[in-house]
Amino acid sequence: MTFESHSVTLKIWDPSTVDHTLEEAISHVSAKANAHRDHVKVTRSGPDVFTVHVGDTLV
After folding, report:
1. Which of 33, 29, 28, 25 is nearest to 49 (CA)?
2. Where on the tree of life does the source sit, at the highest rank (predicted)?
3. What is the pTM of this model?
4. How far, in Å, are 16, 33, 46, 51, 59 from residue 39 at the CA level?
5. Which residue(s) pair with 40 in the sheet?
6. Torsions phi, psi of 52, nearest 5?
7. Residue 7: which region, alpha, beta or left (left: phi > 0; alpha: psi -120 to 50)?
């Protein structure tokens, strides 16, 4: 797991935990960036690798 100011990159090995893990990451990034959850985006950047970040318009 890698943290940046308004993003987190995760490698999620267990497919059964993807939804729960991403929901938690969205909540975390939203709170840290003081942004509404609707402005938090999830990007898949590789096999089992996801980046959760605040959309460019708010950073």
Report:
1. 25
2. Bacteria
3. 0.83
4. 25, 10, 22, 14, 10
5. 54
6. -105, 125
7. beta
